[in-house]
Amino acid sequence: MSTVADSSRPARPAIAWIGLGIMGSPMSENLIKAGYDVTGYTLEQAKLDRLAAAGGRAAGSIAEAVRDADVVITMVPASPQVEAIAYGPDGILENARPGSLLIDMSSITPQTSIDLAAAAKDKGIRVLDAPVSGGEAGAVEAVLSIMVGGEQADFDQAKPVFEALGKTIVLCGPHGSGQTVKAANQLIVAVNIQACAEAVVFLEKSGVDLQAALDVLNGGLAGSTVLTRKKDNFLDRDFKPGFRIDLHHKDMGIVTDAARSVGAALPVGAVVAQLVASLRAQGDGGLDHSALLRAVERLSGAQV
């Protein structure tokens, strides 16, 4: 490939990444691998060191991270954290350049995204809400599903960035729409995991070879990405967090509240939300959401 062709390619935007957790670290590293200049900030020094080792730059504050960025990406746990990093004198809106694009990839309430977009517009900053699905494995493999809310022109500008992070990338509607679709995603995932967990306990108590049973089930109509991703968790009782129960509890609160506000009934979702809450109350909030299996085992008489 000639250097002339390389030099003619448009310059990639400088990216600030705020939030380097289970999802944020591998996602930011995938942008670095794709050739982006990434400056990151998070609260834990070890995660900043990891970013630097991957070829990024560690910043000492939000303000330092965002001041020269064309695109600011945030990936934090919930609405309060998004508000904490976005607002105030030390926040993104006060320190990012007018004309920059803020992409919030956290999973938060749709209203928080709508409010953030309105506040950012007053500062000349454009916003997309772009939550993701796929868990830690999807983040590492850059095969996330990305559901986006915002303006078409901003989505078009962000598309190459998204393509370094995921495979299914869809503009779902105006601000907040990405979060609404993510809430529906989390509803489906939780109910699916619960159904799989109940099937696992039923199969084991029936004396069936669990590995064989899950293999054949996953090849038919009962098969799913959830079962593919979580099968080994069930088989090995390995609940190292890829997506924590604490976070799914937060998401089930988002979807049940949002559904109530629009008049949508979620009878099964409401039951699963309570099962997630009970698992968290029993001290399992830090485990992967596949640990819903533990709740079914307890209900079935096992000492877990």
From TrEMBL:
Keywords: NAD, Oxidoreductase
Keyword flag Metal-binding: no
Active-site residue list: K182
E.C. code: 1.1.1.60
Single Gene Ontology MF annotation: NAD binding
Family: Belongs to the HIBADH-related family.
Name of the protein in its database record: 2-hydroxy-3-oxopropionate reductase
